[in-house]
Amino acid sequence: MNIIIVGCGRVGSRLIQVLEDMGHDISVLEEIASNLEYLHTLEDFSFNGMTSIGSPIDVDMLREAGIENCDALVAVCPEDNINIMVAQMATELFHVPCVLARIADPDRKKIFAERFGMQAICPTNLTVEAILHGILNGPKSKRITIGSSTVSFLPVTADSSMFNRPLSSVSVPDGQMILGILRANGTMELNINPSPLIHSGDRIIFGSLAD
């Protein structure tokens, strides 16, 4: 894929490295020339793509970076406003097939994702969710990102009081859902009718929106 990365800070530079190592063609648009030095701090990596220095919300600069022929654009500048504007321009003016913006403010991320259909990620939400699971539940949770939302799944060992009861009878905390049961043998049964019975050694898989 031909991918434009707008913003070459620590996140942008690391993303560039990963994508280029995967074989993608990368172009970088950065407003502050000194930020390109981050590319030289990455171990065992030499950037082979094109770099452009200028305002990321300037139409001519976006064209110079190759937006008219790119397959995807990712905006990871430090400022939410810039990322939002770049994403809107890429979508509405240049019709880039895949556009993603980093929005640090959870409320703004939700607004632009829900009202404007913007594909966005919120590092604030993801960091808080990772810390909570790290200190409360250990490394047992799994996350899946679909569109602009990230769903977190956490297996919780069933209490003996639940044994031989249907999964549908388990009370669900606000903001969560039950995906299914993870059996002791590693197989999984979904929370569908007829509701599976809970047995000793089972873990109930709860799901919630992390971002």
Could you characterize what this model shows?
The chain is α/β, with parallel strands linked by helices and 211 residues long. The protein has five helices and eleven strands; from the N terminus they run βαββαβαβαβαβββββ. The strands form two sheets. It has a six-stranded parallel beta sheet, sandwiched between helices. It has a five-stranded antiparallel beta sheet with strand order 7-8-11-9-10, with no helix packed on it. β1, α1 (10-21) and β2 form a beta-alpha-beta unit. The longest helix is centred in the middle third of the chain and has 14 residues, at 123-136.
Which features would summarize this protein structure in a list?
11 strands; alpha/beta; elongated; 5-stranded antiparallel sheet; single chain; 2 domains; 211 residues; 5 helices; Alpha-Beta Plaits; 6-stranded parallel sheet; Rossmann fold
Which class best fits the helix and strand makeup? alpha/beta
Shape: elongated
Largest sheet: 6 strands, parallel
Strand arrangement across the biggest beta sheet: 3-2-1-4-5-6
CA-to-CA gap between the ends? 26 Å
Averaged pLDDT: 88
**CATH superfamily label of the largest domain:** NAD(P)-binding Rossmann-like Domain
Portion of residues in helices? Answer: 25-40%
Query: How would you spell out the order of helices and strands?
Result: EHEEHEHEHEHEEEEE
How many domains is the backbone divided into?
2
- Low-confidence regions: none
